[in-house]
Every structure is written in C-alpha cells, then in structure tokens.
Amino acid sequence: MDLCEYEGKKLFEKYDISIPRSVLITKDNLYELDSKLKFIRDNNVVIKAQILTGGRMKAGAIKFSTKDKAQAEINDMLGKEFKGFKVNQILVEEMLSIKKERYVALTIDRTSKKILMICSPDGGIDIEELAKTKPGSICKLPFIEFDPNEIHKQLKFIECDELLPIIRKMLNLMRANDASLVEINPLVKVDDSDDWVAADAKVVIDDNALFRHPNFLECVANRSSGLEVEAANKGINYVELDGDVGVIGNGAGLVMATLDVLKEFGVTAANFLDIGGGADFEKVKSCLDIVLKHKDLKGLFINIFGGITRCDEVAKGIIEYKKNNNIDLPMVVRLIGTNEARAKELLESENIASIDSMEQGVEVLKNKIYSNEK
Amino acid sequence: MTNLNLTKETGIIVQGITGKHGSFHTKFMKEYGSNIVAGVTPGKQGQEVEGIPVYNSVADALKNHKAQWSIIFVPARFAKAAAIEAIGANLNIVMITEGIPVHDSMDILNKAKEKNLVVLGPNCPGFIRPDHCKIGIMPGHIFKSGNVGVVSRSGTLTYEIINQMTAKGIGQSTVVGIGGDPLIGTDFIDALKFFQDDPNTEKIVLIGEIGGDAEERAAEFIKENISKPVIAYIVGRTAPEGKKMGHAGAIISGSSGSAKSKINKLREAKVKVAKLPSGVIELLGIC
C-alpha cells in the first residue's frame, strides 16, 4: 500500500526524521485555514495535493504560493483531478530555502534479496530518469546488516557523516513498519541550519504485513476505488479493466493468460480476478457477486485449473449463486484439475456446460456473445 | 549447483500437516509415491495424518526420521518461524504459503543462504519429477515422465501448459514452480543451471510473467550458459501499467517489467517465445 506524502511524513516525524512545518487541509477543515496557517512562520508556502501519483509538480498538483493567496489556490485544487486522481486532501507546507538536494531511498532488491540503499547527489529528479541520463551519479548498496563502514565507502562523494544517522532512522522505520520502500526525494539542506529535511516522502507498506500493523488499516479504508477495495476485504485479487467480459480464474498467471487469450480472440476483459488458492464455494459466490456488479458486461468466463483449489467447490459456488441470482449473460465455465470429475457431474446436473480447453472456451464464449448481440 | 534432483527415496517432512491444505496435499503426495516421513504441527505430537506420524517440532521429527526437504503449509503469519525452524535443522524448504511479508521472506532467504540450503517459493506450487516424487500441490495426474524441464513463476498457468504437453504426449523431466512473489529463493537461473546439467532434460520451457527483471536476467544467462533449446512464454502482454496483477511481483512500472522487454531479451538469446500457452506445445514439436 502506497502512503500519501503526509502519511509518510507523519511516520518520518515518529522516527525523528525532520520534516517541514505543515498543515493538512480538507474540505471539512477549510474554514479553519487562517488559524491553521499561523503554525507556519514563513509567508511563502507550498501547496501540495495529496494524491498517490508521481510527477505532481509537472501535473500542476504542487504550487508555490504565499499565505494570503493560499485560500484561492486551495479552493481551486480541492476536488480537482490530476492524472485521474481526485484531490481530497492538501498539504500546505513552509517553503524551504534549499541549499543542497540529495536523493536517499531504501528498498528491497529482488536480485540480491537484500535491502538496497540508493543514494544520489542529484536530489529532486525522478530517479528512473536519472538512471537513464546520469547513471554514474547513483550509488547502490545492498546490505543485510547496517554497516556504517561499508556505507562510508559507498557514499564518499556526498555528506556521509551527516546522512548516516538519517539512513539509520529510515532503516528503523522500514523494518518496524514492514515498508518495502522508504524514499526521500529530495532530502534538503536548508539555509542557516545544519539540519537535513525531508521535503517529500514516499513510503510503501507491504500489504502482506498489514496484519502486524493495524494502525495502517485506516489508511487502507481511505483509499477509494469501490469494487477493488470490496474485493480486497474478502481476500480476492480484483483489478478493474476497460473491456466487457467478466473473468474469474485461479492463480495470477492463469488469469493473466486468460486475459491475453481473450485479447487474441478479439474480446477484452472487464476485470482481472484471481480467486486465490483453495477457495471454497462461499468465496466463489463472493467473486461472482463482485464481477457481475460491473456494468455493461457482455459475457462471463470462469477458468479454473485446480491444484490446491478443488473444482467441485467452485462448481458448488456457481450453482448456488445461480439458484439465488439470475445470470442472464453468455457464460462459459472451464473447470479442470483437482476433483474435476465430481465438478463436471455437479455442473451437468444443473445444465451448465463446461469446456476443457481455455482457448476453445474463449472461442465458444465469443460466439455466444455474437449470437446474443444479434 | 542448486540441487533439485528428486528420487523416490527423497525424505520429506510436512510442516502444517494437520491443517486443511496440509493434510489434503499430504494425501496426494503420498499417493503419488513421495516419501513423506513425518509431519509437524506444534501441540499435535502423537497424532497421525494419512498414516504419517505428527511431531511438535522439526527437531523432534528428525530424531526418528531422515529427511532432506520440508514442505511448508503454515499460515503466513507463522510461516517465518516454521521456515527458520526447518533451516535450523538443515532442511531444504518448499514454501507453499502465500501472503508472506516481504521482510520475512528476506530473513528466511538470507538464513538459508548462510547454510547453503535451497528454498523454493514462497507462494509457489513446489516441484515434481513425474513418476518419481512430488513436493508440492500440483495435480499429479496431468504430468507425464519425459525429457522437457519446465520452470515457471506461476502455478496454475504451469498446470495449463503441462496439461497441454501431456495431452500431446510430451513428457517432463522435472517441473519447478519458483513462485510469484517479488522475493523468492530458487530463481530462473538456478533452475536453468539444474536443467543444463540434468541428464534427464533435453529441452527447457521457461514460463515467465510481467514485473521485475528475472526473465531479462535469465535471457542473459541463457546466452552464455545454456546449450539446450529453450522455449518461453511470457504472460501479461495485455496487462496495464501500474496495476498489480494478483502476484505481488507482477506489476509493470514505467519502462521496466513489461512483457515486450522480456520477450525481446529472450529472443536476443535465441529463445523461441510463444504467443499463447498452446504455442509452447507447437514450438516444442518443431525444435
């Protein structure tokens, strides 16, 4: 789960990483703006939309302003959409007078299977961009245990003694909160101070570890995307897509393959839905419920290859759902693998045909959809 | 070399054997002929599952039985402790459990590396040598003994392709499911090394997916080190950028991780890349 900038900065504060003075404005506390702004001493402020997307500056979701103009800027920004994200919260921060900018991040490296420290003296720039244009300026160090001497060697070109304590705090934050990314870009040194301040915060919390961190569940609840959240709450991997054929499958790979095959046959999926491993019939019903909520569906394809999942449980779920709900669109069911014979018996007794091959199944569905449209 | 060699004698412990999935798949592994010697569930010592004795700890089980591998079905929140226990007892591990926190995976993998042990997964279906032994949850009846080595990031998609291979009479030497998490133990390169040296393997199938750069790195490795023919299929060609497609590891971010980049790199390494699952079988027939 990606944290918004202000959520990340709250964590930074907790771990004693300096952040700029700021106030969080929503439409509910907008009327208190004047009194809240008193908390910021300087007259110059930065107005930052709290949306989960990069490149906010370019998109116009970050604006430099002054206290007296803040009201107008905020009114303009609240409720507006940038890159498809609606602004509900705005962070108003003191403007920092920047002397130096650095990039510092900790992430988890798939290749070395260790924590990866990434630093660059060129802060403030998109790191992917920097990797292309100036790869020599990025230093990377994979490590398991925090070793100041090793980091010293790597960071020779920037202020190692000053940055080490900050990196240590970032590591504490990362480990204690199951973060998969802690990024400060830029980390800035301000005029008239020895302090380094995190001008931005990007923190990603590992979804798999949320059971250890109930404090973040509130952040999860704030993320609005309707069906995806509803599905996630039921332990179902659901992603909304642009097409019009509902898809239910088991295993991310098989579902992705199903989407690829659909496309090959000229139909497009309305969703990605991975029912997960070992689903029982109740979960199958929940999946049908979610997929069929999608408006303007033209067809439904259920593609299960049972390993840990038992086909007969899936069949039971489909049959029970059908008894209580009307599925009035072309549907193709394909259940093979563990307990497939029993599953086919169950489906047959309810007059639901099942097809053995995925590609054949997609073709049959396509033809059903065409004849339905005629 | 990563030792993925399975025989009828390979001794296996099941951690989490009394759970729903643990007991279900113990039955199927045993029926397949795998040499399951003991099970472990804390507090359940003295019970039996499918005729297999259950112990409180891996150490207790190993007092009475010999094993080289442990297969772990323990729920995500307890899986790290179970894995560390098995590693402490010098067992290679297959981690079936999905949803393990990435920091836990990192700790498990580094512990195993210290002791030079093999980890398969987490979030993987395990591995199988048809007609000999399976340590995993794959439906055994779809496999057929033969000379094609298969390595895959995805469980059910592997079954899909194996099923089509077997239907066409193409058998498999060993099939390895490395798992769909961002952090995994055995990776494509480890499996490729094993297949290159494995006398039972003549051709190799690599099933990859979007996200990360494991397929790109495998392509580099194939160029230099693999002389046996390799056929690949990369799933997720139609997946949109920035959306996590089920597997924590399957996400295209920016220019990296796309199916296109992987397919190009594999083709540069002279790997034949199939467009659809059925294409793998066609390509196997002509190479």
Question: What tags apply to this protein structure?
Answer:
A: 374 residues, alpha+beta, Dna Ligase, domain 1, D-amino Acid Aminotransferase, Chain A, domain 1, 6-stranded antiparallel beta sheet, 4-stranded antiparallel beta sheet, 14 helices, 17 strands, B: 287 residues, alpha/beta, Rossmann fold, 2 domains, 7-stranded mixed beta sheet, 9 helices, 35% helix
Task: Kindly summarize this structure in a few lines.
With 374 residues, chain A is of the alpha+beta class.
Descriptive overview:
The complex is a heterodimer of chains A (374) and B (287). With 374 residues, chain A is an alpha+beta fold. Chain A has helices at 5-14, 33-37, 56-59, 67-77, 127-133, 148-154, 160-177, 217-222, 227-233, 252-264, 281-291, 311-324, 340-349, 358-373; strands at residues 22-26, 44-49, 62-66, 81-82, 85-86, 89-94, 98-109, 114-120, 139-143, 179-190, 196-198, 202-205, 237-240, 245-249, 271-274, 299-306, 331-337. Chain A folds into 3 domains: 21-94, ATP-grasp fold, A domain (Dna Ligase, domain 1, 2-Layer Sandwich), CATH 3.30.1490.20; 98-216, ATP-grasp fold, B domain (D-amino Acid Aminotransferase, Chain A, domain 1, 2-Layer Sandwich), CATH 3.30.470; 227-373, Succinyl-CoA synthetase domains (Rossmann fold), CATH 3.40.50. In chain A, helix 11 crosses helix 12 (311-324) and helix 12 runs parallel beside helix 13 (340-349). The radius of gyration of chain A is 26 Å and the shape is elongated. In chain B, 35% of the residues lie in helices and 23% in strands. Chain B has a 7-stranded mixed beta sheet, with helices on both faces. Chain B is globular, with a radius of gyration of 18 Å. Chain B starts with 10 loop residues before the first strand and ends with a helix. At the A-B interface, helix 10 of A face helix 1, helix 4 and helix 5 of B.
